[in-house]
Amino acid sequence: MQSIGKLVCGIGSNDADYVVKPTINGKVVVCPFYRVWHSMLVRCYDAKLQARQPTYIGCSVVPEWLSFMAFRTWMIEQDWQGRELDKDILVPGNKVYGPETCVFISQGLNKFATDSAAARGEFPIGVCWNKRNGKFQAYCGNPFTSKEEHLGYFTCPDAAHEAWRSRKHELALQIAVLHADPRIAAALSTRYLPENIHKIV
Description:
By secondary structure, the chain is an alpha+beta fold.
């Protein structure tokens, strides 16, 4: 049995009944369930990581998932291979990791749904100042073409942001119809509506 010992991030209990980091042929192989669980705890409770990625400040994990084995039981039943654990695609703005709010999504979808708040600067998301034209420029990344679309020039940042929101919604609807998981499809269909946009930006 795995020795429980020190808590992970001072809060999570590694209560595994097996060794999560076995050495195989001289190489340490980390259990994929443990890797995801450990990374989740670090995002929520490691001050050094949050100093680098402040979007995780205020995030937490539901009490039941502080047990590794409880999290593992849930993860085994999910379509997790090759995907990333996400906490806010189903519930925009959510800060709590738990079975009711989390789902595994592709890296591409995760990138599409990330607002990149820390990197976008002083203007609203999807907006930059075009010095040459003296106007605000709207742009939006297209996940189907992997290209950034130019959406036009505007005299105010709010109008440029609305152009981004409208295009983002169109793309989200296109992605939604391709998704087999009805929860993700439904979430994408409403994520970028005007009444919901404040929750993610």
